[in-house]
Amino acid sequence: MINVQTLNKISACGTDNFDKAKYNVADDIQNPDAIMVRSAAMHDMQFGDNLLAIARAGAGVNNIPIDRCSEQGICVFNTPGANANAVKELVLCALLMTSRKISDGIAWANSLKGNGAEVGKMVEKGKSQFVGPEIMGKTLGIIGLGAIGALVANAAISLGMDVVGYDPFLSVNAALSLSPSVKVVTDLKDLYAVSDYITIHVPYNAETKDTIREETIAQMKDGVRILNFARGELVNNADITKALESGKVSAYAVDFPADDILGVKNVIPTPHLGASTPESEDNCAVMAAKELIDYIENGNIRNSVNLPNAEMSAVGTKVCVIHKNVPAIISQLTTVLGDAGINIENMLNKSKKDYAYTIIDAVGDVTGEITSKLSAIDGVIRVRAIG
Questions:
Q1: Calpha distance 11→17 (Å, rounded)
Q2: What one-character-per-residue DSSP string does 124-166 give?
Q3: Domains and CATH numbers, the chain
Q4: Which residues does 147 contact at the CB level (< 8 Å), separation at least 6?
Q5: pLDDT score at 200
Q6: How many C-beta atoms lie closer than 10 Å to residue 21's C-beta?
Q7: pLDDT at 173
């Protein structure tokens, strides 16, 4: 029986993908073979030697100790694009909220309770304080044109906006999905200079931390409106607060409330609602489950954040090896198999930074002794024989 632990409430339409004859899926499992997680913090968790994979039902993986997982040969998956439409819709809502002072207007209207017949007159007299511009004809700058950024770009075009995008890692598929009306620039300064609104959709890491800060805000148009539905750390809170106070930034919509920006005028905080739709949670759960199943049963990797994507069919036994991305390991693997009389029908090797993944279609008796010899090769982290 393969034991899968769920660290958060995972949608049943995801866990139902596991064959109950093969898998035991529950939240109280000890020493699991695989883990499904949403937002639970995992950095202090200890992982058993049998843990093969962790699937994050969502895009961000800051709650998972990626480096430690890589060192232990644990494949970490996420579900890019599964929640993209949900986030896109909230970003569109935020575009309007930063323009029209909708949240302030709602709060003010509710404060009129108790004024009876005078409410109508008070509304007409007071509504001018919530006047704001339309988004049609304005320019939206999008930092990051992945699954979410591309959807936002196309939606903004359909709403009559001009769209400028920036993404140094723009994939072919993402480029093909973009409306031809989206102007893609190669320098962020060009985006900052023309954008009335800026939304950021990039992963959070050491390179992207504080992407929006005092220095970059200075390059933007006066009165720019900024949206952050990716990660709070992408925007420096002290610098955005200063810019809001000076009027350089008109409004800041953020899905990651923090104590130092709550209550700041013209900050519109939402409680991490980006992927909080039943459709998004279902999509993420299904994708995460299918990623785990394909890896556990077939050794295939798709949407891993720490190992390369690798998929291969086999006629014999699949020998799946996670190893360091260093010279001579492949030749050592094939030598062990050749010395044992194992024929190699096919082989796939892919790398991702410091780590690599090799799948060998081996015809012959791949016994425990052979996998032990493969595991003993310097630089090899984990070996599995499937089939």
A1: 11
A2: HHHGGGG----STT-EEEEE--SHHHHHHHHHHHHTT-EEEEE
A3: 1-83+275-307 (3.40.50.720), 84-269 (3.40.50.720), 308-387 (3.30.70.260)
A4: 80, 81, 84, 174
A5: 98
A6: 6
A7: 83
| 8 A C-beta contact, residue 249 and residue 243 | yes
Q: Give me 185's structure tokens.
A: 């620039």
The closest alpha carbon to 199, from 276, 262, 253, belongs to 253
Could you give the CA distance from residue 169 to residue 174 in angstroms, rounded to a whole number?
Answer: 10
Are the CB atoms for 353 and 362 separated by under 8 Å? no
Q: Look at strands 343-352 and 355-363 and give their pairing.
A: antiparallel
If pLDDT is split at 50, 70 and 90, which confidence band does 22 have?
very high
- Taking 90 as the threshold, does the pLDDT of residue 334 lie above it? yes
Nearest to 152 by CA among 171, 143, 82: 143
C-alpha closest to that of 384 among 300, 327, 285:
300
Q: Band of the pLDDT at 65, cuts 50, 70, 90?
A: very high
Degrees to nearest 5, angle at CA 255 with 254 and 256: 95
Q: Where are the alpha helices (DSSP H) in the chain?
A: 12-15, 66-71, 84-100, 102-110, 119-126, 147-158, 172-177, 188-194, 214-217, 237-246, 278-298, 329-339, 368-375
Residues comprising the chain, all counted: 387
Place of tokens 């480096």: 67
Q: Is 314 helix (H, G, I), strand (E, B) or coil?
A: coil
Q: Which two tokens stand for residue 138?
A: 């304005």
Long-range interactions of 273-278: CB distance < 8 A, separation 24+:
273/90, 274/83, 274/86, 274/87, 274/90, 274/229, 275/58, 275/59, 275/83, 275/86, 275/87, 276/86, 277/83, 277/86, 278/11
